[in-house]
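Just wondering, does anyone understand these tokens?
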Amino acid sequence: MTIKKSVKVAGPAVGAFICGAPDAAGSAGSVVAKAKAVGVIRGQKRIITIGFEPEALAEIDAAAARCRISRAAWINLACSKAAAE
């Protein structure tokens, strides 16, 4: 028989406590600071998670294969081109 511990759900007071820490990223009202704090830094890049519809992902994979580059490289290239416009 497995012993299961009950899990308490953290309330707003816990969130306020964590956001009030001296090393919390940015101010509580700064959306930009919060957005920059998301992700893990690996080398010079910030690693993020993004979701795609299965059909779009298949198209991205096909385009990346035609260019003989990785999916991540293709997405990076597409984003760079779109941002430059």
